[in-house]
Records
---
Amino acid sequence: MTTLADPLPGGRPGEVERATALAAELTGRGVHGIVLAYVDTAGVGRVKTVPTAKLASAAAWGVGMSPVFDTFLSDDSIVTTDVLGSPDGDLRLYPDLTRLAFLSGQPGWAWAPVDRVTQEGERHPGCSRTFLRRTVVDAERRHGLTFRAGIEIEWSLGLDPAPDGAFVPATTAPAYSAARQVELSDYGAELLSALATQGVDVEQFHPEYAAGQFELSVSALDPVAAADLSVLVRQTVRAISQRHGLRASFSPAVLAHGVGNGGHIHLSAWRDGANLHAGGDRRYGMTADAESFAAGVLAHLPALTAVTAPSPASRLRLQPSQWAGVFTAWGRETREAAVRIVTGTAGLRARSANLEVKPVDLAANPYLALGCLIAAGLDGLTTAAVLPEETTGDPAHLGAPEATARGVRRLPASLAESVTEFRADAQLRAALGPVLADAVIAVREGEIAAVAGLDDERIAAAYRWRY
């Protein structure tokens, strides 16, 4: 369970003692360093590391790191807002010891996610993990809701080294094929072993559609833990891939054309231990609140894409008729719909029914993506938003009159359009707060400027190995 309390200078009660005991245990297991991990606004995982012996000090006083990373672009250039992007100031990175994991794929290392706190001990308004944690806490306090979430992990596996940063798939065996599983059997077995050793509950692992592509899904957790787990799984995939002479890319599009890598989010709302997406009297067993929650997500999707599909490479993936969910449509088990209602198998529905949001990729900061999705759903619940008529089949095939009648429209076809929608969405910007909302806008506009004049091939190449 993730700690749902802000870090404190000097450490939360009992935390320094716990860190001291953990350090001794880790040292006994041959762990020499701790990776302190977070994700920046651009979706890039950033880290600092400390020797294992310094874990207690990190738990008590944090580890210094500049706030400038809030406005880093994925190529490490820097943009600014009115309060972020300067060389001034410092933050403290506080590890969440409840999420600390031994990195089986990186012998000698352990890993922990961090919250970022000011030197005065206050929440940093640009910390996405703190934003998600506070969103979850507020939802329970105001609406009596808790959430379960899971993030699918898709990646393209290439040979390493490859000439000039190119992508050469590790296998060209057919999609979902036994041949692909056999060709990379040792790789897959070591990955599953490493994740099991780290306490990751894997639901499925299989070859995916595109050449060299794989997908891994994990059990649902509370949203903060789910975002943490997404970061940890990718750390592990990278490490195991490297050990096998391979390189993993989580970029939305490693090539300019074809199916890209998604990061679909599964989300369910619960009250008093009951899943609101099952056992109700509305469509497909949803309760009235679940329908309104889904309607809120659907209504805010155009603006949400600035957070869930935040890279110029994301638009190479978000193409019609490729199961990426590029229209404001919902449907039960409809994989072309942006919001897929997953009822689950009879006998398991009370536990497994959920929403799957498809226009999401792994360039997204998972804390921002989950926090904004929850905020959108809560807006729908608060206003008793009405879920429109269901769409079945491929929304791309709807005629204009029928699409208009159903409220089905194309999601932004460019990152610039997403930013425009985000600017106009007062609810999402208010949920993030001005500092974080302005950082999202500045970083997206920086990425747009960075690829001005590039064709699709060069955009895919530019972002191929950044995520």
---
Amino acid sequence: MAQDIAGDLIARARPLPALAADDVMAILDIGAYCFSPYHFNTLPEPAVHGVRTGPRGDVRFELLRPAQTIDDLLTRSR
């Protein structure tokens, strides 16, 4: 059995429904490198969005934290 060295595998052999062009797919609870207190590899932090689904099935996204700019990254690294 092959071993996944990087640990970036979400699942194996999991059937998924067919996706259409306007479908939204979310994979929850991933991205630990972006929240590491050590700022792994000095990568800029991505934007974080929250999502809510209303009673009629409407989906609303809200920016919770903007993406980090290169200037932000350089300021933090000083």
---
Amino acid sequence: MTEFSRIEEFIQSYADNISKVLGLDVTILDEQGIRVSGTGYYQELIGLPAPEGSFFRMILQTGQPGMIFDMKKNESQCGNCKFLQQCRELATIGFPVHKREKTVGVIGIIGFSPEQKEKMLHHSEKWMPFLQHTSSLIEHKLLELDAEREKSCNIQEEMPQASVHPVYFAQLIGAETGLRDVIAKAKKVTNSISTVLIRGESGTGKELLAKAIHCESGRSRQPFVAVNCAAIPETLLESELFGYEGGAFTGSRREGKPGKFELAHKGTIFLDEVGDIPLSLQPKLLRVLQEKTVDRVGGIKTLGVDVRVIAATHRDLESMVREGTFREDLYYRLNVIPLRLKPLRERTEDIALYLRHFLYRYGTLLQKGRLELEAQLVQRLQAYEWPGNIRQLENAVEYMVNMAEGQVIGNEELPEYLLFEDEPRIVGSSDLGLEKLVADYERSILQRYLNAGKYGQDKAAIANELQISLSTLYRKMEKYGLEKG
């Protein structure tokens, strides 16, 4: 049994995803040179050995990556392959997969057409870092399985378990376009002790970036603890973050409870919506960041914690500091490494990538097969501003896949709020002014959020998602005659 025989389904799924996003074919070989996954032409060759003397066999032997953009001229790398004359590949890039410094496989991307070759040549400097991260992901999966096996065998020195599904920079969609500069900065601080503050609107992927920083760091085998500071009632937030001793307050556990900082010891804590932490708690958070110690509610003993802090917010902290609702000293302690995620409307080149990714995901989950969007619809969706960013786009694609009856999705599968029915009415109707059109649109958005099952009629969560106060939400619901529930 080879290393890859334990994760065949995982690596085939990952190969399919890469191929879908890059528009290139992908193949993966195990340590014996057997093709264990593949897309396109290579999907039919799964289970068969790669030719002796081939490029990928050479990578298995040397453990070194390589790239070829003219198979016939690279005799040193392909000359011994008995299928050289029949080879249809125009460009190939291969990278070894290591596990604890041992080469256990190869992952490669291949271009068969002149257009694919040109794409690979144009982005040649980016392929090796991408494949390196892909290789790391596979290695991480193998090490996870090792740890689980050791744990089931009652081995005392068991490997610490990661508390988050691995996310790597190479997996972040838009890494080569809108996210390139952000990821370049994030890579420099993966192993830093400095606090990272991720800025961006709701739905831009702040938590995903935080997970990638954690998983690429030396703390990746330790806990990743995420806390949404806006979702926890103010009266409970202190005990949730810092823990409490038994009997500290009415209803508390007799044995007490560790806080999120304690649970994240040796790992990473992600403080989402840190701008919503009440002013009364901010001095205590500042002390944790400065002293690396926590005091439980009702406790008399100070506890030391070794935690990497990554915070995120959509709020304008600078304005809050000027208004006195956010401490200036805490702001500077959090804003050591600022990273800003742009909204989708500022990186429209990424919209097509997300559309393909989510089409594949939900086409697979909902067993609808391979789906595609009409070209006109893609252009329309790229022109939309996506106020809810990636989260909204994902929800729209999930809706369309559910509604799809064939393999090609058109306008008739769009969610109602994306039908753009107002456009012809604006031209041809004199009875609909701007105020009425805006009101109709606002009402439709509120109705959609109120009907969404994911919120369970939780008005506070809806208000937070829409970045308005709860009182404003109720006022608008009353204005439009919407059910308060």
